[in-house]
C-alpha cells in the first residue's frame, strides 16, 4: 500500500501545448478516486534530448532539484509524459549509482538550500493505473464501453527503455497498455511497427517524417480505428505529423491519435469538450460517432 | 584512418558523464540491429561511432559534420548492449563535448536556452491559459526560474560542500543570480505575463468544461530560506 500522496508532474508540453491531456488525466483519475496533490514548485524536468545534450551535469541538477522538491513535500511523483519519466527516473538511477556525482549535484542544490536524497518514487500514470488502481476498477468505471474500436497502441521509447532503469514492463513484449486499453472495452491490435520510435529526438528533416509515415502505413494496414498513446512528444509526431506526411508524400491516413486518459475519459462518459477532443488536428469524430 | 589512438580525446570522454563506458565496447554490433537511425540512415551506425571513440577520432565524432545528432534517443542500443556500454549515453557525452566546444546545432542550443532562462520548454502565453480555462484548468503556475539560475551556474572555486542543514547561511538568491553570466542568466522580463493576472474562473460558459479539482499544495516552509 502506497502511503505517500501522489503529486502529478505535468512537465511542459502537456500543460502548455496539449492541456486536453491534463484535463483528461484530472477527470479520469478523479473518477477513479486517485487523489492528486499539485505542487507549484516544479520546473521543466528537464527534457532528456536537447537540454541533456548540451550539458548533462546541468540536466542532472535540474532533475535533482525537482526530485528534491518532491522529497521536501513528502510526495511520490506521477508523470504523464514519457520524456519526464525518463529524465526523473534516469537521474535517480545515476545519482544512486555514483555517490561522487550525487555530492557534486548536491553542492549545486546547496546554493538554494536544498538537498537530494533519493527517497521519492517516480512513476508514469499508466503504472499508477495498473498498480494502484488496477484494471478491474478501471473497467468498473466505464459507462460507455468502446466496443469494437480497434486501437493501435504506440508505446514510444522512454516508458520502457532502458529496462535496467525503467522496469515498467518487458521492453520487447510489453502489455501494460494493452491491458489498460482493454479495460475501456476497446480492442488493442498489433502491428509491425508497434515498438518503433516516434523519431522526434532525431535532428533530421527526412528521418522523423519517414518514420511517422511507416508507422501509419503499418497501423492503417492492420485496420486500426485510432492510435492510442501516452506521451505528448509522440503525439506531436503523429497528430501534426500526419498532416506533414500527407503534404510531403501525398498519403492521407487521417487516423485519430488519442492520449490514453482521453480514451478512458470517453469510456467514462465525459464530453468532447471536457476531454479537449476537439483540439486535435486529425479529427476524432469517427470514433466518437461510434460510441456516443 | 590514422594508425595512432588519440588517448587524450578518450581521457576527455572518460571525464564526461556517461563517456567512460565507451571503454567496455567489444564491437559486437548488438546495438545496430534495432537502431532506428541506422535503419533510416546509411551514415549512422552506433557500432562505428563506438569504434571511433575507441580510436579517439575527435573531428569525426564532435566536429561540425558529425552524425551523432541523428540519434533518435530511443535507448534500444542501451537495452541491447551486453557490455553495459550504454551507447546512447556515450553519444550524449560526445554531444556534451561538442557543446563545450561550441559545435552545437542551433535548435538544440535555443531549446536548452529556453529552459535555462525560463524553466519551461514551451511558450507560456495568455492564449495558453485561455485554452486551459476553457478546459476547466487553472493557469500554469509561475516557474521558480531564479532557483534554476542558481543551480545552473558553474561551480566556484572552493564551493562549500552540500548539506543544506540548519545553520548554513545562504546568499540571497537575487544577488547571486544577478551577477552570473552565461547559460543560466535570469531574464525575468521575458516571462510572458502568466503569473500577473490569474484569468477569470471558468463560469459555466457553454463551451467551457466543468472545473476540475486542483488541490492546493501543502505549503512547506524551508527553515533555511
UniProtKB/TrEMBL annotation, chain A:
Domain Cysteine-rich residues, every copy: 8-89, 151-238
Annotated GO MF terms: oxidoreductase activity
Top-level taxon of the source organism: Bacteria
Alphabetized Pfam families for the sequence: CCG
Keywords: Oxidoreductase
Protein name in UniProt: Cysteine-rich domain-containing protein
Organism: candidate division TA06 bacterium DG_24
Classification lineage: Bacteria, Bacteria division TA06
Amino acid at each position: 500500500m502506497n502511503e505517500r500522496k501522489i503529486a502529478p508532474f505535468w512537465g511542459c508540453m502537456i500543460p502548455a501545448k496539449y492541456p486536453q491531456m491534463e484535463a483528461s488525466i484530472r477527470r479520469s483519475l478523479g473518477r477513479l478516486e486517485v487523489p492528486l496533490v499539485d505542487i507549484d514548485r516544479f520546473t521543466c524536468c528537464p527534457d532528456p534530448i536537447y537540454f541533456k545534450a548540451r550539458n548533462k551535469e546541468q540536466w542532472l541538477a535540474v532533475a535533482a532539484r525537482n526530485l528534491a522538491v518532491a522529497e521536501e513535500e513528502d510526495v511520490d511523483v506521477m508523470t504523464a509524459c514519457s520524456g519526464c519519466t525518463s529524465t526523473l527516473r534516469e537521474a535517480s538511477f545515476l545519482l544512486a549509482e555514483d555517490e561522487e556525482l550525487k555530492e557534486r549535484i548536491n553542492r549545486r542544490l546547496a546554493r538554494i538550500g536544498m538537498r537530494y536524497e533519493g527517497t521519492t518514487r517516480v512513476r508514469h500514470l499508466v503504472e499508477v493505473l495498473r498498480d494502484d488502481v488496477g484494471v478491474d476498477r478501471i473497467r468498473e468505471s466505464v459507462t460507455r464501453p468502446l466496443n469494437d474500436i480497434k486501437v493501435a497502441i504506440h508505446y514510444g521509447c522512454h516508458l520502457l527503455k532502458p529496462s535496467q532503469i525503467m522496469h515498467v514492463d518487458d521492453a520487447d513484449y510489453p502489455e501494460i497498455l494493452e491491458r489498460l486499453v482493454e479495460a475501456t472495452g476497446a480492442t488493442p491490435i498489433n502491428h509491425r511497427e508497434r515498438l518503433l520510435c516516434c523519431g522526434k529526438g532525431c535532428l533530421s528533416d527526412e528521418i522523423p517524417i519517414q518514420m511517422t509515415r511507416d508507422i501509419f502505413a503499418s497501423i492503417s494496414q492492420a485496420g486500426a480505428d485510432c492510435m492510442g498513446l501516452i506521451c505528448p512528444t509522440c503525439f506531436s509526431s503523429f497528430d501534426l505529423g500526419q498532416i506533414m506526411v500527407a503534404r510531403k508524400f501525398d498519403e492521407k491516413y487521417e487516423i485519430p491519435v488519442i492520449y490514453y486518459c482521453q480514451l478512458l475519459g470517453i469510456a467514462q462518459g465525459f464530453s468532447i469538450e471536457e476531454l479537449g477532443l476537439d483540439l486535435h488536428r486529425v479529427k476524432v469524430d469517427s470514433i466518437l460517432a461510434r460510441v456516443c | 584512418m590514422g594508425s595512432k589512438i588519440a588517448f587524450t580525446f578518450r581521457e576527455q570522454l572518460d571525464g564526461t558523464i556517461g563517456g567512460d563506458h565507451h571503454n567496455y565496447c567489444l564491437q559486437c554490433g548488438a546495438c545496430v540491429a534495432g537502431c532506428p537511425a541506422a535503419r533510416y540512415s546509411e551514415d549512422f551506425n552506433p557500432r562505428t561511432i563506438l569504434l571511433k571513440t575507441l580510436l579517439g577520432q575527435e573531428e569525426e565524432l564532435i566536429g561540425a559534420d558529425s552524425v551523432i545528432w541523428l540519434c533518435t534517443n530511443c535507448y534500444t542500443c542501451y537495452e541491447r548492449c551486453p557490455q553495459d556500454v550504454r551507447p546512447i549515453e556515450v553519444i550524449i557525452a560526445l554531444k556534451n563535448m561538442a557543446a563545450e566546444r561550441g559545435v552545437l546545432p542551433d535548435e538544440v542550443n535555443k531549446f536548452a536556452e529556453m529552459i535555462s532562462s525560463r524553466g519551461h520548454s514551451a511558450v507560456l502565453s495568455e492564449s495558453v491559459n485561455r485554452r486551459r480555462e476553457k478546459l476547466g484548468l487553472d493557469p500554469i503556475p509561475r516557474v521558480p526560474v531564479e532557483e534554476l539560475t542558481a543551480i545552473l551556474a558553474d561551480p566556484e572555486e572552493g564551493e562549500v560542500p552540500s548539506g543544506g542543514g540548519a545553520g548554513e547561511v545562504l546568499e540571497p538568491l537575487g544577488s547571486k543570480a544577478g551577477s552570473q553570466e552565461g547559460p543560466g542568466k535570469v531574464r525575468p522580463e521575458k516571462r510572458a505575463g502568466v503569473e500577473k493576472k490569474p484569468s477569470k474562473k471558468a463560469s459555466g460558459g457553454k463551451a467551457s468544461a466543468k472545473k476540475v479539482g486542483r488541490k492546493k499544495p501543502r505549503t512547506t516552509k524551508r527553515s533555511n530560506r
